[in-house]
Amino acid sequence: MYIKVKACTPINEIEQVLSENNQELAFEPIDFGYIKEGKSNKGTIAGYLSCNYAGSRRFKVGSVRDHVLGFKGVNGKGDIIKSGGTVVKNVTGYDLSKLIAGSFGTLVALTEITLKVLPKKDSSKTVIIYPSNFEQIYDFFNKLSSSSSEISGAVFVPEESKDKDFVIKKNSVFKFNDLKSNVSFIAFRVEGDKISIEEKINNLKKELKLSNSDISTLDVYQSEPFWKKVNNLEVFEKTEHNLIRMVIPPANGSKLCKYLENNHNYFVDWCGSLFWIEVNSKKEEKIKDLKKMAKDFGGYLTVIKTSSEYDYGEAIFTVDKVRLMISEKVKQSFDPKRILNPGKMYRGV
Amino acid sequence: MSEIALPKIDSSILNRKNEIVKKLSKLTNIENVLSEADELRPYETDALSVYTQTPLAVVLPENTEEVSEILKYCHSENIKVVPRGAGTGLSGGALPLQDAILLGLGKFNKILEIDYENKCVVTQPGVTNLGITHAVQHKGFYYAPDPSSQLACSIGGNVAENSGGVHSLKYGTTTNNILGVQMVMMDGTICRFGGKSLDQEGYDLMGLICGSEGLLGVVTEVTVKILKTPEVVRAALIGFPSIKEGGDAASEIISSGIVPAGMEIMDKALIEATDNFSKAGYPRDAELLLIVELDGTESEVNELIKKVEIICKKNNCSSLKLSNSEKERLSFWAGRKAAFPACGAMAPDYYCMDGSIPRGKLAEALLEIKKLSEKYELPVANCFHAGDGNLHPLIMFDGNDKEQLRKTEEFGSEILKTCVRLGGVITGEHGVGIEKRELMCEMFNDNDIQQQLSIKKSLDEKNLLNPGKVYPILRKCAEEGRVHVHKNKDKFPDLPRF
To answer: Does the ipTM exceed 0.85?
Structure first.
């Protein structure tokens, strides 16, 4: 249940080889190609690991860091180093794979990566529901994540936006079956064998008190492309504005939704935890407000894409003094002369 | 006591014992500082009881600020500190040092917050692993990692060791199930990594701390994820006439796409030992016993059980029993969970190993262990977390016989070398501690180890926190030229080299 690859193997190639063997990367790699170029470009596994951005299944299966079993690479001193191995259970020495995940290439130039893989699910189905207010959105999210009938994806796409182009885009991206994309909707996904999918959906309908007339259902042939579009961030295709990725504890989600309403284009993934927010280039000062809000809500934000004029500098990441001090020490231990991606992580790290 | 090299004792610290105890008594309540011989005795060892050491003093702080003040003081006075959770670790990670303070987290025994909306529990590190599940099970939730010692082991210790358990194949180990930690560094700095949100930005320092065996900081608060209890859990007890057939069935179950909640293998020696001990009703004619647990919704579990049955029959299983009630399911596990005491009843002592191998090499590893058992003339019983390739051979011996103890240690070390040769690692979940320190060179070369030591040095420059653990300091590595000594300057010159 693992795959060992050279660091710059394209994600597409890995997914293809795994698919031929009925396996997959369970963390569902996001395709950032669409927001930049309007077409698929999943990049390489090393790039992906260095960012640690997992797709819609994150809340169920973990992030990229939870699927890395080991790596080889070269640190800033020129030493070839390795950590981990090919086995799932391994507590031999510090778990450097976790540290490398999300380190933006500032610690090690990766050369080889070993990842845990999981069997592909037999089938999937997606159910669309239409909440009437913000409280109800998070009530649904909470019930979905508290159910024994496990789901593997849940997004909220809001109706409100003063931006007509965005509304048109949203309607064209989410054109599926009887899905009403002109109003706010929650979509949740159930995966597994066909019998248990039906059982889980029936359980969830009861738990969420849904009747058939309240919902739309996407079968596997529609469910799969639906989640691809979510993970391709297609509603923000070729955006010229700033794209923010904010992660917060879900209990604060409805407050954030209220703030975002009519202020920014956005959608919510990870059953209420992950917000993708587009900040218009004319409103860049708003990023500071969002940053403060992320902190107050117990989360964080990362500027994923900046508009051409935006001077991001320190604003890409947020960090407190103590964590910055420790991060500097860790950086020092891998790369004392700061030659690997200098300044990429924090100013000075 | 078995011979083990420890960091050189700083006699100046021993001479200052009274002064140090006095100062510690000012940093916490006086009754939280233990220094008399009788008071220190219970802390002389952890669950790797072949090694004992009497600490200089034991201090049991009550809050994070006290931990910080104690560490700050020890840092400024160059006093070593060994942190300890519940002391159930199997690799000697909490073995005291004569010139070190033993910092016990036993008083950090409260759950601070249960947050169902964010699906997490904020707890002090001294709360037991099972204590977390007990606190949330009435609402249908549980904490997934379940080391065998979960009744006694503390969540702080779980973080230090990155503990796993029977269910880690499907649900991951500690590192996959925590959201945040509060930690105190050796210089007294209090820091917080993660929180209640998923992932964190910047370096994954929580990931670094988890499994660092108390070498980088003292964890004073942990936020863990809780999961909804599955609707249905069923287990199957399957006997096989040969190691190969059982091993193949286990591999086929995984490669067919089934992810069992737990999958355990026991060999004939252990089937007999545990069945005698716990009367679990295991098939005694089987050479190998497979316990497969499946969870999910009712039809999901039924579907999976059907698939498992087909695979096992195809691989010539000699018996197959399904649990039809919760009571029966627990009885299937009773024998497996009694594996250690069952071996304890068969010999004066047993030594539990903890290697990991790629699952496909299971049969090969078992046959190799059998050969080694004959070579060393010591009986061995085997249990495996079959799904993830984590094996626990239990070597039975008499610790009073020094020759047997020596042979046991050599046998154990050969098993772990076999694991590495088969593409595995020397410890799957028990940690390196003091026990497997010298075997680190089997897996890592100088560069790998120096990188890890550089991290240690960057966060604990004086090497005061849990010194002598995890990293090789002994002859074996040095002789084989694997420990890199740059221009005669060791990173940690106070560590003895022979």
So the answer is: yes
